[in-house]
Design a protein that fits this description.
2 copies of one chain form a homodimer. With about 375 residues, the first copy, chain A, is α+β, with helices and mostly antiparallel strands. Helix content of chain A is about 30%, strand content about 30%. Chain A folds into 3 domains: about 80 residues, Rossmann fold (3-Layer(aba) Sandwich); about 60 residues, Dna Ligase, domain 1; about 180 residues, 2-Layer Sandwich (D-amino Acid Aminotransferase, Chain A, domain 1), CATH 3.30.470.20. In chain A, strands 10, 11, 12, 13, 14, 15, 16, 17 and 18 form a 9-stranded antiparallel sheet that branches. The interface between A and B is medium-sized, with 34 and 34 residues.
Amino acid sequence: MTVGIVGGGQLARMMALAGYRLGLDFLSLDKDPCTPAAQVAPALSGSFTDPTLLDELAHRSEVVTFDWENVPLESLDRIAGRVRIAPPREAPAAARDRLNEKTLFDALRIPTNRHAAVDSEADLAAAVSRLGLPGVLKTRSLGYDGKGQFVLRKPADIAAAWARLGSNAPLLYEEFVPFDYEVSIIGVRGRDGAIRTWPLNRNLHADGVLRLTRAPWRAPALEAAAVRHVRRVLKHFDYVGVLTIEFFVRRGRLLANEMAPRVHNSGHWTIEGAMTSQFENHVRAILGLPLGDTAPRGHSAMINLLGTMPPREALLAEKSLFLHDYGKEPRPGRKLGHCTLVAASAAERDRRAASLLRRLDSRKIAG
Amino acid sequence: MTVGIVGGGQLARMMALAGYRLGLDFLSLDKDPCTPAAQVAPALSGSFTDPTLLDELAHRSEVVTFDWENVPLESLDRIAGRVRIAPPREAPAAARDRLNEKTLFDALRIPTNRHAAVDSEADLAAAVSRLGLPGVLKTRSLGYDGKGQFVLRKPADIAAAWARLGSNAPLLYEEFVPFDYEVSIIGVRGRDGAIRTWPLNRNLHADGVLRLTRAPWRAPALEAAAVRHVRRVLKHFDYVGVLTIEFFVRRGRLLANEMAPRVHNSGHWTIEGAMTSQFENHVRAILGLPLGDTAPRGHSAMINLLGTMPPREALLAEKSLFLHDYGKEPRPGRKLGHCTLVAASAAERDRRAASLLRRLDSRKIAG
């Protein structure tokens, strides 16, 4: 039984590695022939919108999923009706547009920061006047890791912001939220409507890229609110598979930042740190299999390995560390792998994660 | 960096799945083109002794290992000197011959049952006279899962036993040991000589095939003795990789039954039940990487799935059960997969394993 994946990145790779255990086969489609997924499973190589490749993917797969929210909707539309697709196309359609996403959060009574659509410099001036400063002008789609954003601090910044991003309109202006920290919640919904959520993640970003996730993050009131929110989104889409919402935490309250209709970097710790990983439960969900237990196993810290891979020897010498190398070529800032520490207590986890981060940053872990 | 494996069964498959996480590649060689390993990694298909295929395996691999003790020694000899081979050939050479194995146990002061070489019917009569009855006449090599054995209970059985197995001489006669239960110990030795052992396994066989392993099995004196024994064997061979010894337990003492110079069915629980699995540590060892922590995570029970695969849905609905499906065609008695239960206590593990075994045997878990 084959699971088709549009996209062949590390998320697809980890889905395949989780599903192999269950006796499943995988087939990915990606423009790059040497993706992380293609190194561990059969792959089709070519344009994401190539009708012949899409037809082959549909023909050979029991179900087709995707590993990123910017999956071309026309690709899903091409194969719809011939093969089951999960998650539903409406989820990536909403998640790729920041305005639609915010509108959905508002409609589902999920708190988010105030925002306004901006299609012209006049719209921007009006938005700044209504929402105040500081604020952030953002592209509505295809921005990630801090790209496609402009922070406005004073009225004179309006012209500069428009000059920088105006050609990418339609845009979005958001009030700037000075948050205390960031968390995310990951949920999975089965074909039968059953929902499970993993414990709350506390996330640390650096230069717009996730650096560290600690879970379970014990904050019962926040977790209860996050679970309510993700359940609403899952039900709204009649969703099947894994979905993630990232939140800012400000004065003990959640503000939804964005959602991802897929397995998520902040859930990588679940491979060793939970009874069932996000990858296995995503595969179970889209195949209509019973969902697995999402209870934690110990206290986990996940650290992304960016830019250059530290030497295997140094990382493998760390106690109770699980190394994941995605098989990617090094490139500045690129996510090449991650490692998960599993500790007996939250305090031990935090201490060990801080120590490992310091040594990675200072290159004391080097060849 | 590619690990070559002579053999493509489930053990090779699970090595690949463990090593993929570390960013490694795998290449197996097997006569069957559709092995469990070939379903998840590149494979060479043809005779184990085909010089062209062996040369290709050596050329493409950083290190070559094997997934069964009856690996043709001529295959290893063909590639020796051109690629590193681990474990050392002397280990499978000894393990495949029951007499050599017993002689080694004696030499290393590892208690085993009394035995005698049998090359003729007269030898058998002499052995029966010296060691007594009951006893077991066995082929010296290539026997497994109870095949190639004859139990003698009275002097008149000598002729019948010889008639059945004489054509397979040289043979071995062993005293019959009425044991209380069976255990096994799994150890790993790195290139630098570092040794680690996993907690003791208690094993239950049915019809000569492993059915259930529970670990850690708390029996400190037995475990200490088993660890001493496996360390001696590992050092004797200047071994690199994972090695297993199975023991009978009789009146609180160990009697070595056999050894396997490879990852072992009784260690499958380590995938989820230990900080580092036997598969990952085997791969680490043969590549000269630091060995990982072998401490247990919870209390595990591993149950083999034999003959026909129970429906995925039923198994996945069990709490804290990890399913492994090797992708093999059903055949009576064949090992098609296994599942590991991980519990918070030994008592809970034992209760749940017994319940699951009952339901599997009575086919209450069925489609």
